[in-house]
């Protein structure tokens, strides 16, 4: 599925112990598991044949390692605005554990105490969208699930809370782009494993 317009390839990092167990992993640097490393290596084949004007990565070790194992580490630009959601007091805790103490809590609506709100993450995503549209070329991005979900929502013009409607598996590839012209942003592919 190629396009005459720039495309933005989004890659979620490979599996970590915390992603496997459902623990919120914002700013903690949890390494990839062996399964995560193997999946990251397979990304090289899955991304072969595509040409990227630039490669951007979150500063997290898991995103940078995924980028490197996929064969794109040497040219990657580390961007702080691609960091995962800052979960504050909920760092390292599962949703089930959070709900036990805070029934009805939803990340994309409520944010995290001592961490980021949806608006905070949306503002970072807006900066990335602005930069992508300024570059106007096909870019490859390595980051984490919740941030990439907000980025997709903001790409489409949805509020940051719209990210709740997109699910991303580890080592998945998604593609943002346009339909008829540069005024029609779309999701061209989502959560390809």
From TrEMBL:
Pfam families: His_Phos_1. Substrate binds at residues 25-26, 62, 84-87. InterPro entries: His_Pase_superF_clade-1 (IPR013078), His_PPase_superfam (IPR029033), PGM_Phosphatase (IPR050275). This is Putative phosphoglycerate mutase. It comes from the Bacteria. One of its GO terms (molecular function) is phosphoglycerate mutase activity. It is an enzyme of class 5 (isomerase). One of its GO terms (biological process) is regulation of phosphorelay signal transduction system. Keywords: Isomerase. The keyword Membrane does not apply. Its EC number is 5.4.2.12. SMART domains: PGAM (SM00855). SUPFAM superfamilies: Phosphoglycerate mutase-like. Signal peptide: none annotated. The active site is at residues 13, 84.
